[in-house]
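Structure tokens please, single chain.
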Amino acid sequence: MRRSRRRSGFEEPSLVPLADMLSNTVGVMVFIFIFTVITAGGATVRKQLPLERPSNLQSVVVSCSGDRAQGFDHEALIQEFLEPLGEPTYETAETWIEELRRHRLEKEGVEVHAEVAYNTLLFTIVPHPASGETADELKRSGSRFRTFLGQLSPEERSIFFFVHPDCLQAFQEARVVAFEKGFRTGWRPLKAGEPLRFSPGGRELTNDH
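Here you go.
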């Protein structure tokens, strides 16, 4: 009876099929993530930012930078940013991400752009340096900030301030105006030059988080 011969050498298995499988899996996960964000109507920022008092009100943002305060509806801006990009498909996901990175929205004195990093969609809102109003301008009865607040209801919306260290005076005056109009408020300090970012799901992002 003949014994079967064993191979003395070891054949290393090919990693190509594994690499293909991982690539396909990651691609599918990225696509599912993007599709979920888009089909959710762009609702990618949380409805409640932390307030000084508990509240179920939706927040609008006031950026305080360069001794100027400016209010804007961040959720509406992000939805408008996403609208012209349309809904991606699995076949167009890569192209859609490239278009997303190139796309810019400039409106109401701010610029909105986005990035995909570590399978996370990040939105950055950058106020123009000359936009917003100084503390003295905020005191005027016809200021743009007062007009902005006049379009909102204190029963439905709250005001959240992002404050850079070069804008304390304008922040204090804008906060007084918000109190006068009956709004609940919240705020958080930012480092000098720190951008205002929002993530899906989502929370505002800073360099510390």
